[in-house]
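Problem 12. The chain below contains 181 residues. Write out its predicted structure in token notation.
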Amino acid sequence: MITAPIRARQPAAGRLFALQRGFTLLELMVVLVIIGVILSFVSLSSGGDSRAEQMQREAQRLIALLELASEEAVLRSEQLAIRFGETDYEFMILRGGRWLALEDDQALRLRELPKGIELRLELEENPPPGLSAEDADAPQVFLLSSGEMTPFALVLSAPESERKFRIKATLLGHLALEDEE
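Solution.
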């Protein structure tokens, strides 16, 4: 039996490219578009109510500022207060028998709420003693040097969100945040 050496078959030059086939640019673009569409749907479905999250952050910030202001009133032995507007709030101090805005305190400065978020203040006595309807610039909630606070409820809401957040304060200065759906 005669044996001949077996030679490996060399592919022709034209067949070499056919064997080393990769992805075309068009195929890669289609895959990227499909992934982008899927990610868009996932982020929209799991995104939740971003306005509600924003309101919750603002409510938590306001609680922290109220606690800070209450502690400052006790430590300084000064009477502080807060004036709520529909879309803002501002801390005030009693000086010379007048309520003045705390402009020199960076933490307790005038705060504007993000566009679309509204405040509604609920007081047991509406208006509080010594505050008439003409005094729109006067404070409604008082933070006394004894640690006491005007009891109130403050509701943060937005027209495009079903959720509301209520901050409740007691006479002894305890603050609580409630989520209303």
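Discussion. The beta strands are 80-84, 88-95, 98-101, 111-112, 118-123, 141-143, 152-157, 164-169, 175-180. Students who got a different answer should revisit the alignment rule from Section 12.3.
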